[in-house]
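lol ok so funny story. i was supposed to be doing the assay writeup but got distracted and ended up predicting the structure for this chain instead. priorities right. anyway since i did it might as well share w the group, maybe its usefull for someone
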Amino acid sequence: MERVPVLKIGDILLVSIQIDMEDQVALQLQEDLAERIVATGCHGVIIDISALDIVDSFVGRTLATIAAISRVLDAETVVVGMRPAVAITLVELGLSLPGIRTALNVELGMDLLAREREDNGDDDEETNGLEGAETPAVPAP
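and the output, tada:
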């Protein structure tokens, strides 16, 4: 079985699907991505589907599941490169892809993730957002 490569670029995992997304390949990608998010601590996942002519309901649901798993592991997912025919098919199938943001290409997807991290104030990770907070008094034992 073929595997989809997962590349790390800074704080982002990039997946460029260049093969047919059979069900087993989609499930393996789901597992591989979850493991890589944990191993690398990345906070963003970009899935490039520009080479896919068809996305069936199983692959669509798997993309939504990947986004949900990523979110639980503190990473946001952006799907990029969706062709108009794929978008039409997903809408006709009634798949809304909850939790997945979309962008036209990888560059815009990276910009979207960077803006999202800035908007969430993630530059202040050292203080965990507690700057100026008082330390509660701890009674002596």
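The chain has one domain: 6-121. The longest strand covers residues 12-16.
back to the writeup now i swear
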